[in-house]
Amino acid sequence: MFADRAKIFIRSGKGGDGHVSFRRELYVPNGGPDGGDGGKGGDVIFVVDQGLNTLTDFRHVRKYKAEDGEEGGKKNCHGADGKDVILKVPAGTVVKDFETGKVILDMSNKTEPVTLLKGGRGGKGNRHYVTSVMQAPKYAQPGQAAKEMWVTLELKMIADVGLVGFPNVGKSTFLSRVTNAKPKIANYHFTTLNPNLGVVDLGDKEGFVIADIPGIIEGASEGVGLGFDFLRHIERTKVLIHMVDAASTEGRDPICDIEAINKELLSYNAELANRPQVIAANKCDALYGDDYETVIEMLKDEYEPKGIKVFPISAVSGKGLDELLWHVNKLVKEAPDEVIEFEPEMDISYMDDPELPFEVTKSDKQEGLFIVEGPRIERMLGYTNLESEKGFAFFQRFLKENGILDMLEELGIQEGDTVKLYGLEFDYYK
Questions:
Q1: Using one digit for the tens of pLDDT, what is the confidence trace for 273-308?
Q2: Coil vs helix vs strand at 28
Q3: Which end of the chain has fewer CB atoms within 10 angstroms, the N or the C?
Q4: Alpha-carbon distance 219 to 225, whole Å?
Q5: Does the predicted model carry a pTM greater than 0.90?
């Protein structure tokens, strides 16, 4: 099965604690502190592996944890650093926060490893805390906490050309004829349930990568059927081949099919409507005499004035395929060369500094009002979508895990009192 999505848990390593110890040597009864520093925790690193084309491995192993740093030792011995965990993903993988669905990282154009979660810093040993008044400190710094989160990996295939159309119009037959791909072919709706990639080789180093996107139905942009799963693979393509059943073997109107799918593409991502597009009028070998001329002329009159060329073809016999492929190759070469990359929508750098300050106070101007503010609060509100169920659940957990609810209790908050976090206000209830 083609695996294009996976939910995984990632955790960096905790920093090792600093050590508390004192020199103990013969004839040195009162040696000074010699506690060593703790080791750094391991990082969580993502790297593109060109040999991978699915996320299958992540469906079998869900949790990935880097090693914790070791505690420092006596005699100023530094604790060993924890080992990194390296996650190899196929090109085109997008990493999203599971709670909010926002993009954290797009690995499409990354040629070097990317550290997503940094391991915690090691704590300092007690030797660092000697002062003129404290010659024998009996405390050391704890290691920095690990960072962890659930993320969703999504594979948005990198192909030059997307092959779209209603189910059962002949896309898989076309792909098997013009590439080395071997898709399953049968006369059933949704025979293709997973995207197929193939390489069109036109010779003389000419050609392109094409993705057969499973049949799109009306309502796909709203998630009907497997709409989102299918549509995400079109986002990176430079050119679209829109295939229709010109012979209407299932009683559908080719123009109505084209308009319906273009509507779904526009609804899902407005930029898709501006991609170069050609129409492959398939099964034209099933049209005879005047029917052939009528249907093809009707399609050309409707779309060629809009700059969309129409090619009558037969995926079974091969008629018209060369002309179509060379035209598509020309459009691909004219398109911008860079791979479309999704900009990060969420900044997780706050996790690199969990000590960002904040404060919880009781208003002296308004009865029953409590104020929570500070850099940590500002950053959290910047990456959390409180209108979604997952985002609000994350917000509640943030308040609890950072001790904010306990601080409000200590200040005497009562049910029905108001809590204000910058522009956000809510009533407090247990």
A1: 788 999 998 888 877 777 777 888 899 999 999 999
A2: strand
A3: C
A4: 8
A5: no
For 391-407, give the DSSP string.
HHHHHHHHHHHTTHHHH
pLDDT digit string, tens, across residues 55-75: 888 888 899 999 999 999 988
217-243 pLDDT, tens digit each: 444 344 434 444 556 667 778 899 999
Residue 129 falls in which region: left (phi positive, over 0), alpha (psi -120 to 50) or beta:
alpha
User: 208: Cβ–Cβ under 8 A, 6 or more apart, which residues?
Assistant: 160, 161, 199, 200, 328, 329, 332
- Which residues neighbour 251 within 8 Å (Cβ) at sequence distance 6 or greater? none
Q: Where are the beta strands (DSSP E) in 343-400?
A: 359-362, 369-373
- Strand-pair category, 310-312 with 369-373: unpaired
Dihedral class, residue 266 (left if φ above 0, else alpha if ψ from -120 to 50, else beta): alpha
CA 228/CA 320 separation, integer angstroms: 32
d(CA 46, CA 93): 10
Question: Which CA distances in Å does 393 have to 62, 91, 98, 336, 397?
Answer: 22, 32, 12, 41, 6
* Of residues 172, 129, 175, 215, the one with CA closest to residue 325: 175
Cα gap 77→413, rounded to integer Å: 48
Q: Is 65 helix (H, G, I), strand (E, B) or coil?
A: strand
Kindly state the tokens that stand for 199: 């390489």
Closest C-alpha to 100, from 335, 332, 397: 397
As a whole number of angstroms, the distance between CA 256 and CA 298 comes to 12
CA trace torsion 185, 187, 190, 193 (10° rounding): -20
The span from the CA of 423 to the CA of 406, in Å, is: 22
Distance CA 30, CA 44 (A): 43
Q: What share of the chain is helix, strand, coil (3-state, %, to 5)?
A: 25, 25, 50
What's the Cα-to-Cα distance from 73 to each of 211, 229, 304, 363, rounded to whole Å? Answer: 56, 52, 76, 48
Residue whose C-alpha is closest to residue 73's, from 32, 119, 42, 38: 38
| Residue 270: other Cβ atoms inside 10 A | 9
Pairwise CA distance, residues 158 & 93, whole Å: 9
Residue 245, class by beta-carbon neighbours within 10 Å (0-12 exposed, 13-18 middle, 19+ buried)?
buried
